[in-house]
Task: structure prediction
Amino acid sequence: MAGKFLVSLTNAVNNPDKATVGFVVANAAVASGQETVVFLNVDGAYLASKGYADDIHEEGFAPLKQLMDQFVEAGGTLWVCSPCFKKRGLDEENLIEGATIVGGAKLVEFLSQGAASITY
Result:
């Protein structure tokens, strides 16, 4: 039985190292058969906008956009914090493919099902 794993990603261009490593870990989790969710919140919510991650490339890692695409293609779930998204004035029409805007209740439900979590 696969476990559940949540990566809470609070960074984007403000700390590309943490944003990148968050998706490296998420890709490892989904590749190992874990039901994996990346929760984009605080500044991480910016990553949910088309084009935002295109030029983020931390030395020593694959480009962030590539890591994000791999995660979704591998069956990972991408959630975006609704209040964080709205607070930053982001546009739902510009949401990246595979991302879903959710409220806190959805996150609490997933965590209450025994998901392990880590924050970047």
